Protein backbone atom coordinates (compact mmCIF):
# COMPACT_ATOMS: atom_id res chain seq x y z
CA UNK A 1 0.00 0.00 0.00
CA UNK A 2 2.79 2.42 0.94
CA UNK A 3 4.58 1.62 -2.26
CA UNK A 4 1.46 2.26 -4.34
CA UNK A 5 0.86 5.58 -2.62
CA UNK A 6 4.37 6.77 -3.39
CA UNK A 7 3.91 5.83 -7.03
CA UNK A 8 0.51 7.48 -7.19
CA UNK A 9 1.93 10.64 -5.64
CA UNK A 10 4.77 10.91 -8.12
CA UNK A 11 2.33 10.27 -10.95
CA UNK A 12 0.22 13.13 -9.68
CA UNK A 13 3.25 15.44 -9.63
CA UNK A 14 3.93 14.48 -13.22
CA UNK A 15 0.34 15.19 -14.26
CA UNK A 16 0.52 18.60 -12.55
CA UNK A 17 3.83 19.28 -14.20
CA UNK A 18 2.52 18.39 -17.60
CA UNK A 19 -0.68 20.33 -17.11
CA UNK A 20 1.36 23.49 -17.03
CA UNK A 21 2.63 22.78 -20.49
CA UNK A 22 -0.60 21.51 -21.96
CA UNK A 23 -2.05 22.46 -25.25
CA UNK A 24 0.87 23.74 -27.21
CA UNK A 25 4.04 22.52 -28.72
CA UNK A 26 6.99 24.13 -27.09
CA UNK A 27 10.27 24.53 -28.88
CA UNK A 28 13.02 22.06 -28.21
CA UNK A 29 15.23 24.73 -26.74
CA UNK A 30 13.43 24.88 -23.38
CA UNK A 31 12.71 21.15 -23.02
CA UNK A 32 15.74 19.30 -21.75
CA UNK A 33 16.19 15.57 -21.80
CA UNK A 34 19.04 13.60 -20.34
CA UNK A 35 19.49 9.88 -20.85
CA UNK A 36 21.70 8.20 -18.27
CA UNK A 37 23.31 11.55 -17.47
CA UNK A 38 24.04 12.50 -21.09
CA UNK A 39 22.17 15.45 -22.60
CA UNK A 40 19.89 14.50 -25.48
CA UNK A 41 21.14 16.70 -28.28
CA UNK A 42 18.36 16.12 -30.83
CA UNK A 43 14.94 17.77 -30.88
CA UNK A 44 12.56 17.37 -27.94
CA UNK A 45 9.13 19.01 -27.66
CA UNK A 46 6.12 18.91 -25.37
CA UNK A 47 2.76 18.29 -27.00
CA UNK A 48 -0.36 17.76 -24.89
CA UNK A 49 1.80 17.22 -21.85
CA UNK A 50 3.89 14.51 -23.51
CA UNK A 51 7.60 14.83 -24.13
CA UNK A 52 8.25 13.75 -27.70
CA UNK A 53 11.79 13.20 -28.91
CA UNK A 54 13.15 12.57 -32.38
CA UNK A 55 13.53 8.98 -33.47
CA UNK A 56 17.00 9.64 -34.87
CA UNK A 57 18.11 11.13 -31.58
CA UNK A 58 16.78 8.09 -29.69
CA UNK A 59 18.60 5.76 -32.06
CA UNK A 60 21.92 7.37 -31.12
CA UNK A 61 21.28 8.02 -27.45
CA UNK A 62 19.85 4.57 -26.66
CA UNK A 63 21.96 2.64 -29.20
CA UNK A 64 18.92 0.99 -30.69
CA UNK A 65 17.85 0.14 -34.21
CA UNK A 66 15.15 2.47 -35.54
CA UNK A 67 13.22 2.17 -38.80
CA UNK A 68 10.52 4.47 -40.11
CA UNK A 69 8.20 3.31 -42.89
CA UNK A 70 6.65 6.38 -44.48
CA UNK A 71 4.01 4.33 -46.26
CA UNK A 72 2.53 2.77 -43.12
CA UNK A 73 3.66 5.73 -40.94
CA UNK A 74 5.13 3.21 -38.56
CA UNK A 75 8.25 3.66 -36.45
CA UNK A 76 9.85 0.50 -35.08
CA UNK A 77 12.57 0.47 -32.42
CA UNK A 78 14.56 -2.64 -31.61
CA UNK A 79 17.03 -3.46 -28.87
CA UNK A 80 17.74 -6.49 -26.66
CA UNK A 81 14.86 -8.61 -28.02
CA UNK A 82 12.36 -5.82 -27.37
CA UNK A 83 10.56 -4.27 -30.33
CA UNK A 84 8.42 -1.16 -29.88
CA UNK A 85 6.14 -0.05 -32.69
CA UNK A 86 4.42 3.33 -32.96
CA UNK A 87 2.11 4.57 -35.69
CA UNK A 88 1.98 8.30 -36.29
CA UNK A 89 -1.19 9.95 -34.94
CA UNK A 90 -2.24 6.74 -33.11
CA UNK A 91 -2.47 6.31 -29.34
CA UNK A 92 -2.13 2.55 -29.59
CA UNK A 93 1.43 1.21 -29.71
CA UNK A 94 2.94 -2.23 -29.35
CA UNK A 95 5.70 -3.70 -27.22
CA UNK A 96 6.74 -7.11 -28.57
CA UNK A 97 3.33 -7.35 -30.25
CA UNK A 98 1.33 -6.49 -27.10
CA UNK A 99 -0.96 -3.49 -27.41
CA UNK A 100 -0.59 -0.54 -25.05
CA UNK A 101 -2.21 2.90 -25.05
CA UNK A 102 -0.52 6.27 -24.80
CA UNK A 103 -1.93 8.99 -22.60
CA UNK A 104 -1.43 12.48 -23.95
CA UNK A 105 0.03 13.04 -27.38
CA UNK A 106 0.29 10.56 -30.24
CA UNK A 107 3.63 10.17 -32.01
CA UNK A 108 3.81 12.64 -34.85
CA UNK A 109 5.92 13.89 -37.73
CA UNK A 110 7.52 17.29 -37.19
CA UNK A 111 9.21 18.65 -40.29
CA UNK A 112 9.37 15.10 -41.62
CA UNK A 113 11.02 13.75 -38.45
CA UNK A 114 9.18 11.06 -36.45
CA UNK A 115 8.77 12.32 -32.88
CA UNK A 116 8.16 9.54 -30.34
CA UNK A 117 6.88 9.65 -26.75
CA UNK A 118 9.94 9.53 -24.51
CA UNK A 119 8.28 7.91 -21.50
CA UNK A 120 6.73 5.05 -23.49
CA UNK A 121 10.06 4.29 -25.17
CA UNK A 122 12.08 4.51 -21.96
CA UNK A 123 9.69 2.31 -19.98
CA UNK A 124 9.49 -0.29 -22.75
CA UNK A 125 13.24 -0.73 -22.28
CA UNK A 126 13.11 -0.83 -18.50
CA UNK A 127 13.99 2.82 -17.92
CA UNK A 128 12.49 5.31 -15.48
CA UNK A 129 11.61 8.91 -16.30
CA UNK A 130 11.58 11.77 -13.82
CA UNK A 131 10.12 15.10 -14.86
CA UNK A 132 11.20 18.31 -13.17
CA UNK A 133 8.73 21.04 -14.14
CA UNK A 134 10.85 24.00 -12.93
CA UNK A 135 13.64 23.19 -15.34
CA UNK A 136 11.43 21.37 -17.89
CA UNK A 137 13.84 18.50 -17.71
CA UNK A 138 13.06 14.85 -18.28
CA UNK A 139 15.70 12.59 -16.77
CA UNK A 140 15.77 9.07 -18.15
CA UNK A 141 17.62 6.47 -16.21
CA UNK A 142 18.39 2.95 -17.34
CA UNK A 143 19.89 0.38 -15.07
CA UNK A 144 23.35 -0.36 -16.33
CA UNK A 145 23.75 -3.83 -17.75
CA UNK A 146 26.66 -4.49 -15.41
CA UNK A 147 24.53 -3.45 -12.42
CA UNK A 148 21.98 -6.14 -13.18
CA UNK A 149 22.36 -9.51 -11.52
CA UNK A 150 23.71 -12.03 -13.99
CA UNK A 151 20.92 -14.31 -15.01
CA UNK A 152 22.31 -17.38 -16.60
CA UNK A 153 19.69 -19.70 -18.02
CA UNK A 154 19.70 -23.14 -16.40
CA UNK A 155 20.96 -25.92 -18.61
CA UNK A 156 20.08 -29.58 -18.92
CA UNK A 157 22.86 -31.84 -17.73
CA UNK A 158 22.91 -34.41 -20.54
CA UNK A 159 22.92 -38.13 -19.73
CA UNK A 160 24.06 -41.13 -21.71
CA UNK A 161 20.93 -42.68 -23.27
CA UNK A 162 17.89 -42.80 -20.99
CA UNK A 163 17.61 -41.93 -17.32
CA UNK A 164 14.48 -42.13 -15.18
CA UNK A 165 13.99 -39.99 -12.07
CA UNK A 166 11.12 -41.03 -9.82
CA UNK A 167 10.23 -37.51 -8.68
CA UNK A 168 7.24 -38.55 -6.60
CA UNK A 169 6.35 -42.14 -5.71
CA UNK A 170 3.17 -41.63 -3.68
CA UNK A 171 -0.40 -42.38 -4.63
CA UNK A 172 -3.26 -40.32 -3.19
CA UNK A 173 -2.39 -40.71 0.55
CA UNK A 174 -0.01 -37.88 1.46
CA UNK A 175 3.49 -38.75 2.49
CA UNK A 176 6.13 -36.73 4.32
CA UNK A 177 8.83 -38.32 2.21
CA UNK A 178 7.40 -38.17 -1.30
CA UNK A 179 5.34 -35.91 -3.54
CA UNK A 180 2.38 -37.24 -5.48
CA UNK A 181 3.00 -39.09 -8.74
CA UNK A 182 5.55 -37.77 -11.17
CA UNK A 183 8.28 -39.45 -13.21
CA UNK A 184 10.92 -37.68 -15.25
CA UNK A 185 12.18 -39.50 -18.34
CA UNK A 186 15.38 -38.02 -19.74
CA UNK A 187 16.99 -39.00 -23.03
CA UNK A 188 20.37 -37.31 -23.48
CA UNK A 189 19.39 -33.63 -22.99
CA UNK A 190 15.66 -34.05 -23.67
CA UNK A 191 13.25 -34.04 -20.74
CA UNK A 192 9.79 -35.60 -20.53
CA UNK A 193 7.75 -35.23 -17.36
CA UNK A 194 5.15 -37.95 -16.96
CA UNK A 195 2.47 -36.71 -14.54
CA UNK A 196 2.64 -33.75 -12.23
CA UNK A 197 1.03 -34.65 -8.91
CA UNK A 198 1.13 -32.28 -5.94
CA UNK A 199 4.68 -31.17 -5.12
CA UNK A 200 6.21 -32.43 -8.38
CA UNK A 201 7.60 -29.01 -9.34
CA UNK A 202 9.54 -28.83 -6.06
CA UNK A 203 10.54 -32.44 -6.60
CA UNK A 204 12.14 -31.41 -9.90
CA UNK A 205 13.99 -28.59 -8.16
CA UNK A 206 15.18 -31.00 -5.48
CA UNK A 207 16.39 -33.34 -8.22
CA UNK A 208 18.51 -30.44 -9.55
CA UNK A 209 16.30 -29.86 -12.60
CA UNK A 210 14.91 -26.39 -13.25
CA UNK A 211 11.19 -26.82 -14.09
CA UNK A 212 11.69 -24.24 -16.87
CA UNK A 213 13.82 -26.79 -18.71
CA UNK A 214 10.97 -29.29 -18.99
CA UNK A 215 9.10 -28.53 -22.21
CA UNK A 216 7.32 -31.87 -22.59
CA UNK A 217 4.56 -32.69 -20.10
CA UNK A 218 2.68 -35.97 -20.52
CA UNK A 219 -0.27 -36.95 -18.36
CA UNK A 220 -1.16 -40.62 -17.92
CA UNK A 221 -4.58 -39.59 -16.60
CA UNK A 222 -6.31 -36.77 -14.81
CA UNK A 223 -6.64 -38.07 -11.29
CA UNK A 224 -5.68 -35.39 -8.78
CA UNK A 225 -2.61 -37.25 -7.54
CA UNK A 226 -1.21 -37.00 -11.10
CA UNK A 227 -1.93 -33.42 -12.14
CA UNK A 228 -2.59 -31.00 -9.26
CA UNK A 229 0.87 -29.47 -9.48
CA UNK A 230 0.38 -28.54 -13.13
CA UNK A 231 -0.40 -24.88 -12.36
CA UNK A 232 2.79 -24.50 -10.32
CA UNK A 233 4.79 -26.30 -13.01
CA UNK A 234 3.29 -24.31 -15.90
CA UNK A 235 3.29 -20.82 -14.33
CA UNK A 236 6.34 -21.24 -12.11
CA UNK A 237 8.44 -22.71 -14.93
CA UNK A 238 7.45 -19.91 -17.33
CA UNK A 239 7.74 -17.02 -14.86
CA UNK A 240 11.00 -15.10 -14.96
CA UNK A 241 13.57 -13.99 -17.51
CA UNK A 242 14.98 -17.47 -18.05
CA UNK A 243 11.60 -19.22 -17.98
CA UNK A 244 10.15 -21.81 -20.34
CA UNK A 245 9.09 -20.31 -23.69
CA UNK A 246 7.37 -23.33 -25.28
CA UNK A 247 5.35 -26.22 -23.93
CA UNK A 248 4.12 -29.51 -25.39
CA UNK A 249 1.25 -31.15 -23.52
CA UNK A 250 0.11 -34.73 -24.09
CA UNK A 251 -2.63 -36.61 -22.31
CA UNK A 252 -6.13 -38.00 -22.41
CA UNK A 253 -9.23 -35.83 -22.94
CA UNK A 254 -9.23 -33.09 -20.32
CA UNK A 255 -5.61 -32.05 -20.92
CA UNK A 256 -6.60 -29.01 -22.99
CA UNK A 257 -9.28 -28.11 -20.43
CA UNK A 258 -6.74 -28.23 -17.61
CA UNK A 259 -4.61 -25.62 -19.39
CA UNK A 260 -7.70 -23.57 -20.31
CA UNK A 261 -8.99 -23.54 -16.74
CA UNK A 262 -5.62 -22.27 -15.53
CA UNK A 263 -5.45 -19.57 -18.23
CA UNK A 264 -8.99 -18.46 -17.47
CA UNK A 265 -8.77 -18.49 -13.69
CA UNK A 266 -5.43 -16.65 -13.61
CA UNK A 267 -6.05 -14.39 -16.60
CA UNK A 268 -5.60 -11.15 -14.66
CA UNK A 269 -2.51 -12.44 -12.92
CA UNK A 270 -0.98 -13.69 -16.17
CA UNK A 271 -1.97 -10.55 -18.08
CA UNK A 272 -0.25 -8.45 -15.43
CA UNK A 273 2.91 -10.53 -15.64
CA UNK A 274 2.89 -10.31 -19.45
CA UNK A 275 2.37 -6.54 -19.40
CA UNK A 276 5.00 -6.15 -16.73
CA UNK A 277 7.77 -7.90 -18.62
CA UNK A 278 7.22 -11.54 -19.49
CA UNK A 279 6.61 -12.80 -23.02
CA UNK A 280 3.36 -14.71 -23.61
CA UNK A 281 5.32 -17.52 -25.24
CA UNK A 282 5.36 -20.61 -23.07
CA UNK A 283 2.02 -20.00 -21.39
CA UNK A 284 -0.41 -18.28 -23.79
CA UNK A 285 1.54 -18.89 -26.99
CA UNK A 286 3.83 -21.69 -28.16
CA UNK A 287 1.69 -24.15 -26.18
CA UNK A 288 0.96 -27.27 -28.21
CA UNK A 289 -1.55 -29.84 -26.99
CA UNK A 290 -2.12 -33.41 -28.10
CA UNK A 291 -5.11 -35.22 -26.64
CA UNK A 292 -5.03 -39.00 -27.01
CA UNK A 293 -8.11 -40.91 -28.14
CA UNK A 294 -6.49 -44.31 -28.49
CA UNK A 295 -3.10 -45.95 -28.87
CA UNK A 296 -0.72 -44.10 -31.19
CA UNK A 297 2.91 -43.36 -31.91
CA UNK A 298 4.40 -39.91 -32.41
CA UNK A 299 7.77 -38.21 -32.13
CA UNK A 300 8.66 -35.48 -29.66
CA UNK A 301 12.15 -33.95 -29.40
CA UNK A 302 13.52 -36.77 -31.53
CA UNK A 303 12.19 -39.48 -29.21
CA UNK A 304 9.54 -41.92 -30.45
CA UNK A 305 6.61 -42.14 -28.05
CA UNK A 306 4.01 -44.93 -28.21
CA UNK A 307 0.92 -45.06 -26.07
CA UNK A 308 -1.47 -47.78 -24.92
CA UNK A 309 -4.77 -47.44 -23.13
CA UNK A 310 -4.73 -48.85 -19.61
CA UNK A 311 -7.52 -50.14 -17.38
CA UNK A 312 -8.20 -47.68 -14.59
CA UNK A 313 -11.27 -45.81 -13.33
CA UNK A 314 -10.88 -43.06 -15.99
CA UNK A 315 -9.11 -42.76 -19.38
CA UNK A 316 -5.48 -43.63 -18.70
CA UNK A 317 -2.50 -44.06 -21.02
CA UNK A 318 0.87 -45.70 -20.59
CA UNK A 319 3.83 -44.20 -22.49
CA UNK A 320 6.76 -45.94 -24.14
CA UNK A 321 9.83 -43.88 -25.07
CA UNK A 322 12.22 -45.28 -27.69
CA UNK A 323 15.50 -43.74 -28.82
CA UNK A 324 19.06 -44.86 -29.52
CA UNK A 325 18.11 -48.54 -29.22
CA UNK A 326 16.87 -48.08 -25.62
CA UNK A 327 13.36 -47.93 -24.24
CA UNK A 328 11.54 -46.73 -21.12
CA UNK A 329 7.86 -47.33 -20.30
CA UNK A 330 5.76 -45.56 -17.67
CA UNK A 331 2.49 -47.34 -16.92
CA UNK A 332 0.43 -44.73 -15.09
CA UNK A 333 -2.27 -46.21 -12.86
CA UNK A 334 -3.67 -49.50 -14.06
CA UNK A 335 -5.13 -52.73 -12.94
CA UNK A 336 -4.00 -55.87 -14.80
CA UNK A 337 -3.81 -55.06 -18.52
CA UNK A 338 -2.27 -57.31 -21.16
CA UNK A 339 -1.72 -54.21 -23.35
CA UNK A 340 0.88 -52.99 -20.87
CA UNK A 341 2.90 -56.17 -21.33
CA UNK A 342 2.66 -55.63 -25.12
CA UNK A 343 3.65 -51.96 -24.94
CA UNK A 344 6.55 -52.76 -22.61
CA UNK A 345 7.83 -55.71 -24.66
CA UNK A 346 11.58 -56.05 -24.03
CA UNK A 347 11.78 -52.55 -22.57
CA UNK A 348 14.93 -51.63 -20.69
CA UNK A 349 12.97 -49.93 -17.91
CA UNK A 350 9.33 -50.21 -16.88
CA UNK A 351 8.08 -47.80 -14.21
CA UNK A 352 4.91 -49.39 -12.92
CA UNK A 353 2.00 -48.64 -10.63
CA UNK A 354 2.46 -50.85 -7.55
CA UNK A 355 -0.19 -49.46 -5.26
CA UNK A 356 -1.41 -52.67 -3.65
CA UNK A 357 0.88 -54.09 -0.93
CA UNK A 358 2.48 -57.51 -1.36
CA UNK A 359 -0.04 -59.13 0.93
CA UNK A 360 -2.86 -57.19 -0.69
CA UNK A 361 -5.19 -55.01 1.32
CA UNK A 362 -7.67 -54.85 -1.54
CA UNK A 363 -10.76 -53.23 -0.09
CA UNK A 364 -11.12 -49.50 0.53
CA UNK A 365 -12.54 -49.10 4.05
CA UNK A 366 -16.10 -47.80 4.15
CA UNK A 367 -16.27 -44.43 5.87
CA UNK A 368 -18.71 -43.86 8.73
CA UNK A 369 -21.66 -41.49 8.23
CA UNK A 370 -20.49 -37.88 8.50
CA UNK A 371 -23.03 -35.25 9.59
CA UNK A 372 -23.67 -32.16 7.46
CA UNK A 373 -22.83 -29.03 9.43
CA UNK A 374 -24.43 -25.60 9.60
CA UNK A 375 -22.39 -22.80 8.00
CA UNK A 376 -20.53 -20.46 10.38
CA UNK A 377 -22.21 -17.05 10.55
CA UNK A 378 -21.54 -14.98 7.43
CA UNK A 379 -20.45 -17.98 5.38
CA UNK A 380 -22.18 -19.38 2.32
CA UNK A 381 -22.59 -23.12 2.08
CA UNK A 382 -20.76 -24.46 -0.96
CA UNK A 383 -23.07 -26.54 -3.13
CA UNK A 384 -21.84 -28.93 -5.78
CA UNK A 385 -23.79 -29.18 -9.00
CA UNK A 386 -24.06 -32.94 -8.88
CA UNK A 387 -24.20 -35.11 -5.81
CA UNK A 388 -21.40 -37.72 -5.81
CA UNK A 389 -22.39 -41.23 -6.86
CA UNK A 390 -21.99 -43.35 -3.74
CA UNK A 391 -23.27 -46.56 -5.31
CA UNK A 392 -19.79 -48.04 -5.74
CA UNK A 393 -18.21 -46.75 -2.53
CA UNK A 394 -16.05 -49.31 -0.85
CA UNK A 395 -15.17 -50.81 -4.26
CA UNK A 396 -12.21 -53.10 -4.45
CA UNK A 397 -8.86 -51.37 -4.97
CA UNK A 398 -8.12 -53.95 -7.67
CA UNK A 399 -10.63 -52.16 -9.91
CA UNK A 400 -8.04 -49.39 -10.17
CA UNK A 401 -4.65 -51.02 -9.48
CA UNK A 402 -3.01 -54.37 -10.18
CA UNK A 403 -2.11 -56.71 -7.36
CA UNK A 404 1.59 -57.45 -6.94
CA UNK A 405 1.06 -60.89 -8.59
CA UNK A 406 -0.39 -59.08 -11.60
CA UNK A 407 2.44 -56.54 -11.64
CA UNK A 408 4.93 -59.43 -11.68
CA UNK A 409 2.99 -61.19 -14.46
CA UNK A 410 2.92 -58.07 -16.68
CA UNK A 411 6.66 -57.47 -16.13
CA UNK A 412 7.43 -61.14 -16.82
CA UNK A 413 5.25 -61.27 -19.95
CA UNK A 414 6.89 -58.09 -21.24
CA UNK A 415 10.37 -59.41 -20.46
CA UNK A 416 11.51 -56.04 -19.14
CA UNK A 417 15.04 -55.75 -17.85
CA UNK A 418 14.52 -53.28 -15.01
CA UNK A 419 11.23 -52.84 -13.17
CA UNK A 420 10.77 -49.77 -10.99
CA UNK A 421 7.82 -49.81 -8.61
CA UNK A 422 6.14 -46.48 -7.98
CA UNK A 423 2.73 -45.15 -6.77
CA UNK A 424 3.63 -47.12 -3.68
CA UNK A 425 1.20 -48.21 -0.97
CA UNK A 426 1.12 -45.89 2.06
CA UNK A 427 2.60 -48.71 4.15
CA UNK A 428 5.60 -48.82 1.79
CA UNK A 429 7.37 -51.81 0.28
CA UNK A 430 10.55 -53.48 1.53
CA UNK A 431 13.21 -53.99 -1.14
CA UNK A 432 14.25 -57.46 0.13
CA UNK A 433 10.69 -58.80 0.36
CA UNK A 434 9.85 -57.40 -3.07
CA UNK A 435 12.91 -59.07 -4.65
CA UNK A 436 11.99 -62.43 -3.13
CA UNK A 437 8.37 -62.07 -4.24
CA UNK A 438 9.26 -61.26 -7.86
CA UNK A 439 11.84 -64.02 -8.04
CA UNK A 440 9.25 -66.50 -6.80
CA UNK A 441 6.82 -65.16 -9.42
CA UNK A 442 9.28 -66.02 -12.20
CA UNK A 443 10.32 -62.47 -13.10
CA UNK A 444 13.96 -62.57 -14.13
CA UNK A 445 14.80 -58.87 -14.40
CA UNK A 446 15.85 -56.44 -11.71
CA UNK A 447 13.08 -55.08 -9.49
CA UNK A 448 13.53 -51.84 -7.56
CA UNK A 449 11.24 -50.13 -5.05
CA UNK A 450 11.30 -46.58 -6.43
CA UNK A 451 12.75 -43.95 -4.11
CA UNK A 452 11.78 -40.30 -3.94
CA UNK A 453 14.13 -38.60 -6.43
CA UNK A 454 15.70 -41.99 -7.27
CA UNK A 455 17.75 -41.90 -10.50
CA UNK A 456 17.83 -45.03 -12.66
CA UNK A 457 19.71 -45.66 -15.88
CA UNK A 458 19.38 -48.49 -18.39
CA UNK A 459 22.78 -50.02 -17.63
ZN1 LIG B 1 -2.82 -42.36 -8.87
ZN1 LIG C 1 -5.48 -42.85 -10.83
Describe what you observe in this structure.
The chain has 459 residues and is α+β, with helices and mostly antiparallel strands. Helix content is 22%, strand content 29%. It has 2 domains: 20-144, Copper Amine Oxidase, Chain A, domain 1; 162-360 and 396-457, 4-Layer Sandwich (Metallo-beta-lactamase, Chain A). The chain has helices at residues 2-19, 55-61, 118-124, 200-206, 224-227, 230-238, 255-265, 267-276, 338-343, 404-414, 431-440; strands at residues 32-35, 38-39, 44-47, 50-54, 65-69, 74-79, 82-87, 92-95, 98-101, 108-110, 113-117, 128-132, 137-141, 162-168, 182-187, 190-194, 216-218, 247-252, 287-292, 297-300, 303-309, 317-323, 326-330, 349-353, 418-422, 446-449, 454-457. The protein has a 7-stranded mixed beta sheet with strand order 19-18-17-16-15-14-27. A 7-stranded mixed beta sheet has the order 20-21-22-23-24-25-26. A 5-stranded antiparallel beta sheet has the order 5-6-7-8-9, with helices on one face. The protein is elongated and about 90 Å long. The structure holds zinc ion (2 copies). The site of one zinc ion (ZN) has 7 residues, from helix 5.
Give a summary of the structure in a few sentences.
The protein is an alpha+beta fold and 459 residues long. It has helices spanning 2-19, 55-61, 118-124, 200-206, 224-227, 230-238, 255-265, 267-276, 338-343, 404-414, 431-440, and strands at residues 32-35, 38-39, 44-47, 50-54, 65-69, 74-79, 82-87, 92-95, 98-101, 108-110, 113-117, 128-132, 137-141, 162-168, 182-187, 190-194, 216-218, 247-252, 287-292, 297-300, 303-309, 317-323, 326-330, 349-353, 418-422, 446-449, 454-457. The longest helix is centred in the first third of the chain and has 18 residues, at 2-19.
